[in-house]
């Protein structure tokens, strides 16, 4: 997809618009990615999801499914869709600095 500049750093994106290099990610980058996704402020609840996704990816090599996320992250389905509207798993993965989850279209 190209690249994007955040905080004076040029970051490469993959074909899905996610960070190509996960090591480029940090919390400041997440805040900027969220703004691009239409989320002006990441709340504690957003961070619960982001940190859960990153831990699952670290442990299993893929972001969790929406079912696993809403069962185990502490955020239910309705709230998850409110936190990350319009494609919540893909959007949350992008903000978390992860590749698009394998189960997403």
Description of the structure:
The protein is mainly alpha-helical and 105 residues long. It has a single domain, classed as DsrC protein, C-terminal domain (Arc Repressor Mutant, subunit A), CATH 1.10.10. Helix content is 47%, strand content 10%. It has helices at 27-36, 44-60, 66-72, 77-83, 88-95; strands spanning 2-6, 9-13. A hairpin with a 2-residue loop joins strand 1 (2-6) and strand 2 (9-13). The two termini are 17 Å apart.
Characteristics:
2 strands, two-stranded antiparallel ribbon, Arc Repressor Mutant, subunit A, 105 residues, mainly alpha, globular, 5 helices, 47% helix
Distance between the termini: 17 Å
Evaluate the radius of gyration: 13 Å
Helical proportion, percent range: 40-55%
Task: Please count the beta strands (DSSP E, at least 2 residues each).
Answer: 2
Structural class: mainly alpha
Strand order of the main beta sheet, please? 1-2
Number of helices: 5
Unreliable sequence segments? none
List the helices and strands and how they pair.
Blueprint: E1 2-6, E2 9-13, H1 27-36, H2 44-60, H3 66-72, H4 77-83, H5 88-95
Antiparallel strand pairs: 1-2
In short, what is this structure?
The protein has five helices and two strands, in the order E-E-H-H-H-H-H. It is mainly alpha-helical and 105 residues long.
């Amino acid at each position: 997809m190209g690249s994007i500049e955040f905080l004076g750093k040029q970051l490469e994106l993959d074909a899905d618009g996610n960070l190509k290099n996960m090591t480029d990610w940090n919390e400041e980058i997440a805040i900027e990615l969220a703004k691009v996704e239409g989320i002006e402020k990441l709340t504690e609840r957003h961070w619960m999801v982001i940190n859960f996704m990153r831990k699952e990816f670290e442990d299993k090599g893929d972001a969790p499914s929406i079912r696993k996320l809403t069962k185990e992250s502490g955020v239910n389905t309705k709230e998850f869709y409110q936190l990350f509207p319009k494609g919540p798993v893909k959007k949350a993965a992008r903000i978390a600095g992860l590749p698009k989850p394998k189960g997403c279209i």
